[in-house]
Amino acid sequence: MRTSLHPGPAPAHPAVLYRPVPPRHADNFKILFVCTGNVCRSPIAERLTRHALDTRLPVRAAGRISVESAGTWGHEGAPMEAHAATVLDEYGVDSGNFAGRELLDEHVVDADLVLTATLDHRAQVISMGHAAGLRTFTLKEFTRLVRLIDPATLPAVGQGAEVTERARALVRAAAALRGWRPSVSPDSDEVDDPYGAPIGMFRHCGEEIFDALDPVLTALTGVPGPRPQDSAPTRS
């Protein structure tokens, strides 16, 4: 049964909402970004991540990591918000062929790592069950925890380990650290919603997301990103 976070009549068989999490395929790793409408923040994060993985990793390794997004009140089939697409274009990242999705149980079940825009999104994902608690973080929370992890303790890609093995080790290490180093304030672990705001707010949001993703992608792949001046967006 496909279920969503939209309010509605109770299903006839509630038990199907919490089906057991199936065994995960060791050869693949899926990242899911979650925001509200799935037209601004999570599409930006999804496309920036996909671009970085394809840039930093060989084709075979990059292909083992899939990246998706959805919204807790997702606009099913909707295009990316125009300003969000502009921000991606300024980063030299493809913004085309995007369709919004409403967050469903199957998206959470299939994800190895769920990164949300806010603490409320994180709580909503975890409330869906599917043993999601240990693999669901806000994006900025995950970045904060990743910065505490010694890269030398992670499996080295290319030295007998696959990138998927390193990614899973990173998620386990971050989950183990949660609670040991709390955030300065709840707001510091969130990315504000720019929906309906001018392009400047979207650019600020894009910079926040890019800056949060960079250390995560470096830790996940073992490959550092471009220098700051090389990755700065180009604006006309």
From TrEMBL:
Residues of the Phosphotyrosine protein phosphatase I domain: 29-219
Presence of keyword Hydrolase: yes
Keywords: Hydrolase, Protein phosphatase
Bilayer-crossing regions: none
Gene Ontology molecular functions: protein tyrosine phosphatase activity
Annotated InterPro entries: LMW_PTPase, Ptyr_pPase, Ptyr_pPase_sf, Tyr_phospatase_low_mol_wt
Pfam families attached to this UniProt entry: LMWPc
Coiled coil segments of this chain: none
Active-site annotation: 35 (nucleophile), 41
Family as reported in the entry's similarity comment: Belongs to the low molecular weight phosphotyrosine protein phosphatase family.
Protein name: Protein-tyrosine phosphatase
